[in-house]
Amino acid sequence: MPTTAPAFADATGSDSALRRFLHGLPGVDAVGLEARAASLGTRSIKTTAKAYAIDLAISMIDLTTLEGADTPGKVRALAAKAVHPDPTDRTTPRTAAVCVYPDMAATAVAALAGSGVKVASVATAFPAGRAALDVKLADVRDAVAAGADEIDMVIDRGAFLSGRYLKVYEEILAVKAECARADGPDARLKVIFETGELSTYDNIRRASWLGMLAGADFIKTSTGKVATNATPANTLLMLEAVRDFRAQTGVQIGVKPAGGIRTSKDAVKFLVLVNETAGEDWLDNHWFRFGASSLLNDLLMQRQKLSTGRYSGPDYVTVD
Question: Residue 102 to residues 153, 187, 192: CA-CA distances in angstroms?
């Protein structure tokens, strides 16, 4: 199968070629990376720009419920919140998507019909990814058949960490193929690395390039199910990767930090990272998302404070 980057066809022709390419990427200066991420996080955002940033962040949220206790009623309630995050203010933007397990995708699709809010579904034995390939692909097929607009897959971290890069690459290709539809637009593919388990920044850079070479539409930090999820530093590194990939191939790839982003202040810091690293082209929910559940509530409270001068507190918003 071809990748989205024909310029790198030689790099993906064999396991040894792929290993040579990935280990030939420049090493990451961890101190410099973390210092730049921290420095960008101190940028001051004034009132007008802050109001714009809050609305932009709301529009970029993949409002997520991924719990064993999920019910159709909970998914429908989450869908209603995605469409009208603040029922008292219809100028509030809708979220980008609702993200659910595959068995809840049909419920979300029905609840969001005609709203413009996408349905994203995790797949491939999320969050651990410990299943046979045919099981993972069946998981994807179920979600796509149910009408999911987007698929969030997890890579096989065991294979990646043991250097079996071609196995990971071919698995992403196979999942990408299952995202195709004969009767409508293909589901967009988000590839989750679980950066907290990859140990080093060099591995995060390699995983970013591996995902992009295999045809990812988005690269995503984490599942939100481990101790270390999205951080400014690992997101900055991934933003650098998509910027450089587009410079070399002309192909634009999205980025999705997920897990641990809970406050408006956090979200604004990430938007500064996007603007200063990848550029304005990524300041759109087609190319940048937040994987979150509690973030929306804080954004809504800060939005009301900016418009009324009063801070309403947590009772102002629904509890997910």
Answer: 11, 13, 16
